[in-house]
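Suppose a colleague, Dr. K., hands you the sequence of a protein chain of 169 amino acids and asks what its three-dimensional shape might be. Before reaching for any lab equipment, you can write down a predicted structure in C-alpha cell form. Begin with the sequence itself:
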Amino acid sequence: MGSKDLLASVWNWRKNLGTVIAPETASLLARSIRTLTVRVERQNATAQAVAEAMTEHPKVAQVFYPGLPAFAGHAVARSQMKGFGGMLTLELKGSYEDAVRAVGRFQLFAIAPSLGGVESLATMPVTTTHHGLPLEERMRRGISDAMIRLSIGLEDAADLIADLEHALE
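The predicted structure, expressed as C-alpha cells, is then:
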C-alpha cells in the first residue's frame, strides 16, 4: 500500500517473489502487534528474574544475560536497551551429560532449537546451533558442552525458576 512512485521500485520484486502476506496472516499480525509491548515487557522481566535466580544456583557456573551487572556487555546494553531480552544462557558446573540430564528433566521448558514465542524453550548449543564445529573452535567461541540456552516465554517467573531448580537437582 502506498503511492505509485514508492511502489514502482519494489513492484517487480513483489510480483516475482510473492511477498504479499495472506489476508488471514495479516489479520493475525495486526491483532497480535497490539499486545507486543506487553508481551516483551513480561518476557524481559521474567528473563531478568530467572537470570538473577540462576546466578545463585550452586550447579550453575555462569549466567550469560545482558541484564546482569556482571555481564561483560551490561553497560552497553543498559545504555541502548529498555529491557534486556528474553534469551539467556546457563553454563553448568559439570559435563555434557549433566546438561543433557538437566534438559531432560524440564517440565515447563520445551526442548526446541528456536527463539521461541509465548512458550519457554531450551536447547543445548553443542547439539544444535554449534553441533558441526570442532571442539577447539567451540571452546574458542566460548561454547561449552555444559551450556543450555533458554528462550523465556510468558510463563510465571517463579514457575520457570522452580522448573530449573528441579532440573538441576
